Amino acid sequence: MNQSRWRKFRKRVVRHRMLILMALPGLAYLVINNYLPMLGVTIAFKEIDYSRKGLFNLLFGHEWIGFKNFEYLFRTDDAYTITRNTILYNGLFIVLNTVVAIAVAIVLNEIRSRFMSRLYQSLILLPYLISMVIVGYLALSMLNVENGFMNKIILPLLGIDPVSWYSEPAYWPYILTFVNLWKNVGYLCIIYLAAIVGINHEYYEAAVIDGASKWQQITRITVPLIAPTITIMMLLAVGRIFYSDFGLFYQVPLNSGALKPTTDVIDTYVYRGLMTLGDIGMSSAAGLYQSAVGFVLILLSNWLVRRRSRDQALF
Amino acid sequence: MRTNAVQQTLFHAIMAALSAACLFPFILLFVVSFSDEQSIILNGYSLIPDSFSLEAYRYLWGQLTPLARAYGITVLITAVGTITGLLISSLLAYSLSRDEMPLRRVLSFLVVFTLLFNGGLVPTYLVYTEVFHLKNTLLALIVPGLLTNAFFILIIRTFFKMSIPGAVIESAYIDGASEWTIFSRIILPLSLPILATIGMMLTIAYWNDWFNGLIYITNPKLYSIQNLLNRMLSNIQFLMQNDLGGRSSESLAQMPMNAVRMAMAVIGILPILCIYPFFQKYLVKGLVIGAVKG
After folding, report:
1. Structural domain boundaries of chain A?
2. Residue B90's closest CA among B199, B209, B207, B166?
3. Domain A69-312, what fold?
4. Which stretches of chain B score pLDDT less than 50?
């Protein structure tokens, strides 16, 4: 029985070898780019010996030291700071971005002129298309201490003294939240607009006949009908709450050390450990901590998504 | 009827204000790049400078060699990366869309699993630098981003399954067409909209990528335009210090630093702004299908 199944499988492989051949480049790529690094997470439990290179050493070389790297990591305040920052920022981003994006999408949907609607969409999507490096330049043009728009134009108008933005951690939760909103709201708005446009017009026509106001139409028809999309988008975002937008936290504060208490997140911490401090042990421990917790959260959110809508779940 | 007009005006006002907020930093950037350095130092970055000047662009024109090289590298990695990425993801998606594919379910799961768990920065970095020795090669700017997101493979697979009738493939198969012929003559031509959409997403990702350059490239001669911008954000004199082939004869004091910095950023965004209006349709579609699967 088993043997005939095996023979059947072999026949199928030979018969469809072309299909397999076509899949190979992509699969080989996933092995290199994803699966080898997955196996490589074991280095978080090892003492790296820099003289030993190559694949074999990455996977099997180096001395095992157990959970030492993790002990060091969690003994410092860093672990708490970066976890708190990552979760608070992402949590805030999820709620604020969703609320603003839905509000904008609702307003945009009310615009009658198709031309103007397209124009507004193009403009609010613009920030989404540029790289975080450019966003760093734009932020600098606003916040530059000597010449920036804030210090030279806005604050004098309000009679406030110039602020040394890049060395005052207290302002950065607001700045980063604003920049994130500015960059991403256009994208989210487009998603929600697509959901709103899909709502059957008859609901609104019936509501108008019954004398419903615009506000009632929005709260009683639009929002309830796009609720599935909202739930799924938010769940997907919650699944990724342990991963932050590295560019936002690295480029916009100009990698300033003074701002670390309010701008350091897991991703910047891992990057700095690896690239500037050369502390691979600590860095890989923080990285694995992120991957492991991230994995659990993604599974959890996927499970919740699947309970609501099978089609939207990843698996 | 009157309340309707009032409502419309109100909605337009809200959207106009938001659009202006999104556009404002770009305008400021643009104006500052054309401002006279003296007036910047005196009045700060202003929308209405005392006097305009082309000095910043004249200065950058003097540094043409490093700029042109960085631009060339960006164009090269964007073109090669987008085409290769599209090809290998659509080939894999096609195989996984066919019921005849051996181990189809297992392999599909391997694709999905990359979305759930990843090794993180450190092992990835070690694999690329110590196993494949990609540090300081152009491949380091292309390879890590090829399948930017395994989600694209799932999207293409769903598209193949949903919009290309199995009967079409079957009849071609019976007529003796090879898998490759079916893929290149039937599947690809029928899938142009989805491929254009995903291609657009890949193009933007490659054009905007600075992260791979940040970690894998230390030789300034291999910098893409984004990496050059990244270095100049913290060190505006970078262009003339690093033996990039630019002219360093001009003294630092003469360099209109503020304007040059903003002019560099303008040069970095301009191509995206120029192609954006023509590809907006594909882009918007890509964003929507990318967010809500299938």
Report:
1. 2-66, 69-312
2. B199
3. MetI-like fold (1.10.3720)
4. 1, 294
Is the Cβ pair B210, A133 closer than 8 Å?
A: yes
Tell me how far apart the alpha carbons of residues B214 and B207 are, in angstroms, rounded to a whole number: 14
Chain B residue with minimal CA distance to A312? Answer: B293
Mark yes or no for CB contact A55/B131 under 8 Å: yes
- Take residue A279 and report the two structure tokens written for it: 């502390």
User: Which residue's structure tokens are 């060699």?
Assistant: B65
Q: How far is CA A68 from the centre of its chain?
A: 30
Question: Other C-beta atoms within 10 Å of B161: how many?
Answer: 15
Pick the closest to residue B112 from B124, B101, B99, B96 (CA basis): B96
Q: In angstroms, what separates the C-alpha of B250 from chain A's closest C-alpha?
A: 24
Chain A hits for B153, CB-CB cut-off 8 Å, are 26
A235 close to A220: Cβ distance less than 8 angstroms: no
Q: What is the pLDDT of residues B54-108, one digit of tens each?
A: 988 998 888 888 899 999 999 999 999 999 999 999 999 999 999 889 999 999 9
Smallest CA-to-CA distance from B184 within A129, A18, A275, A138 is with: A18
Contact A19 B126 (CB under 8 A): no
Instruction: Name the H helices within chain A.
Output: 2-15, 17-30, 36-39, 55-60, 68-75, 78-110, 114-129, 132-143, 149, 155-158, 172-197, 201-209, 214-217, 223-239, 246-251, 260-263, 266-275, 280-308
Assess contact for A233 and A188: CB atoms under 8 A.
Answer: yes
What's the pLDDT score for residue B40?
Answer: 86
The alpha-carbon gap from A172 to the nearest alpha carbon of chain B, in Å, equals 18
CA distance A99 to A96: 5
Per-residue pLDDT for A75 more than 70? yes
Taking alpha carbons only, the member of B230, B222, B3 closest to residue A137 is B230
Q: Within 13 Å of residue B102, how many CA atoms lie on the same side as its CB?
A: 19
Residue A314 DSSP one-character state: -
Cβ atoms of residues B259 and B34 within 8 Å: yes
The CA-based diameter of chain A, rounded to the nearest angstrom, is: 87
- Residue whose pair of structure tokens reads 């556009």 in the numeric block: B23
The ipTM (two decimal places) reads 0.90
DSSP state of B63: T
pLDDT recorded at residue B254: 67
Q: Is A33 on the interface with B (CB under 8 A)?
A: yes
A224 and chain B in contact, CB less than 8 A: no
For chain B, the structural domain boundaries read 78-224+262-291
CATH superfamily of the B78-224+262-291 domain: MetI-like (1.10.3720.10)
Determine whether the interchain pair B131/A58 forms a contact, defined as Cβ–Cβ distance below 8 Å. Answer: yes
Q: Tell which of A34, A104, A267, A271 to mutate to test the B interface (max B CBs under 10 Å).
A: A34
Q: Is A151 on the interface with B (CB under 8 A)?
A: yes
Give A136's contacts in chain B (Cβ within 8 Å).
Answer: 230, 233
